Here is the input.
Amino acid sequence: MDRIFDLAIIGGGVNGCGIARDAAGRGNSVFLCEMNDLASGTSSWSTKLVHGGLRYLEYYEFRLVREALIEREILWGIAPHIIRPLRFVLPHHDGLRPAWLLRLGLFLYDHIGGRHLLPPTRSVDLTRDEVGKPLVPHRYTKGFEYSDCFVDDARLVVLTARDAADRGAEIRTRSRAVEIRQTDGIWQVTVENAFSGERSTVRARVLVNAGGPWVEQVLAAGSGVNARAKVRLVQGSHIVVRKLYQHDRAYMFQNSDGRIVFVIPYQDDFTLIGTTDRDYDGDPAKVKASNEEIQYLCDSVSEYLAKPVRPGDVVWTYAGVRPLYDDGASEAKAATREYVFELDTPGGAPLLSIYGGKITTHRRLAEEALEKLAPYLNGTKAREGWTGKAPLPGGDMDVSAVAALAAELVRHYPFLTAAHADRLAHAYGTRAGKLLGNAKSLGDLGQSFGASLTEAEVRYLMSTEWACTAEDIVWRRSKLGLRLTPLEIAAIDDWISAHRASPQNPLREAGGRM
Here is the structure.
């Protein structure tokens, strides 16, 4: 209770963790609490893209698109293990956006954002190129191929938090902020541990509300702030089906309602399809893909694909709520994706609330947040801009070195299959060796839970990445839930429960500093 942090952050999504990382790297003392798991809200339910947002050009969001395009290559550079280039095919659809407009938009997309490493747009003859083969024959004859990047969204958040903690930040998961109040110009945040119910109070000079969909509920916990800004909750749902085609390109399909849908190669054996855009009213924790949305996504892609996608083909669905700034747009699809700050100083102590934002621009959002808070913090000018140069944990390699790293793992650990090594290289990068340790055989990695998940990896995720449940492991820190049976997933939870009481258990102080 004696310590006063420079900065306390409520919310363990990409924005909260991004601010924690930047602030800790500038020499500030940082505390972050998250009521559930890191990235368990909006940040793990995205379309898994680091992209400029081509369609936002239609809404004249040029500043946002330019910033996102610049950030695209910066993020790829600091996290090449979890971010990779992805080429998108955009077929021209007669009767929708004209070809000249698509060409103009893609020209701007190539040139306004400082593209240096990613290849430029090219025209595609869909009657001859392999990317035309999965499409309805003779319906789509010309298209364009352009660059963006794929990202493992939840791992991006967890590794950002890990880097913040490595630089001194205190990260507490499963710790809900139940009350915030001011005393003598200092914020006091009462947090409750989800496992034990124990409450503790943290003090800080500055408070950041990065609650995402819960940003208004955080303010209602005693902040004394009557917010001027409002949040608009927009639901985005996705479906996953078995692999639809053999090549490695993604598609952007235009719909007659003006929306677009992405079709993306996913986890080697699957295809990700999304997203929807509709206003959401209810508890953000209970959002689910509706039958109507599933049918909409199936119908949208079946307009283009030679082999239609049916709801019965869906092997997994997920949905999230995007906490957009409410700019009064009539339709959810037109609501701004710009982030907005509201800085209040009730009683003299600053409270910064964040509305909106995108995974792609989270690093710049963090920089701008700290610029706004600079008058209240120490050391915020030191190392300004450092987050775009320092790699995230495991990302200290060239952007093209991930395949070589996987091969290196097989050489050092010959008992690994190529697929297992490739998965570890893409998840942990240069830190994969910390997980594998001195193992000489697969048996040295302990119990096998299926789909190449071992006891050694589970222990690593618990001790180093704040994982507390099987769900944390198989749906956020990996997507192995697509390959594991419900019984196998239950066995992971059983193992965690059996080891929770052990003196060596990394969970015995769940939510504490790691």
Remarks:
- The CA atoms of residues 46 and 282 lie 19 Å apart.
- DSSP finds 13 helices and 20 strands in the chain.
- Residues 62-78 form the longest helix (17 residues).
- Confidence is low (pLDDT under 50) at residues 502-514.
